Amino acid sequence: MMTSSSRRVLNTGVTNNIYNRREGHLASDDSTFVGKYKAFRLVYIEEFKYIRNAIAREKQIKGWTRAKKETLIRSVNPQWRDLSADWGKQYKPDK
Questions:
Q1: Cα–Cα dist 8/50, whole Å
Q2: CA 84, CA 32: separation in Å to the nearest integer?
Q3: Tens of pLDDT along 13-56?
Q4: C-alpha 39, offset from chain centre
Q5: Which of 10, 32, 45, 58 is a good FRET partner for 71, with 20 to 30 A between their CA atoms?
Q6: pTM to 2 decimals?
């Protein structure tokens, strides 16, 4: 699930490449839902071996109330941290 910095919107989707999907979101303009609401923060992710299972889970979550979606996010990401914030950054060990 992705959200805006204000947490105003939640976007649920399925992809076979989360890295490319995030880059696509970042490149979205105001003509798309994601671009219009600036839903660029990845706050929840699940992995599936089979696409049919992923699609079924997406449909299940999309049918939930916002409160239930928020509870799911907080169960693994209490601060709603952007899980993709460090992607592509070079690892710098502590000295």
A1: 31
A2: 21
A3: 999 988 888 888 778 888 887 778 778 889 999 999 999 999 99
A4: 8
A5: 32
A6: 0.81
Which residue type, as a one-letter code, is found at position 16? Answer: N
pLDDT for the residue 91:
61
Q: What is the residue extent of each domain of the chain?
A: 2-76
Task: Supply φ then ψ for residue 48, to 5 degrees.
Answer: -135, 145
Tell me the sheet residues that pair with 42: 2
Contacts 24+ apart (CB under 8 A), 70-73: 72/44, 73/1, 73/43, 73/44
- Dmax (CA) for the chain in angstroms is 47
Strand order in the sheet with 41-42: 10-11, 2-3, 41-42
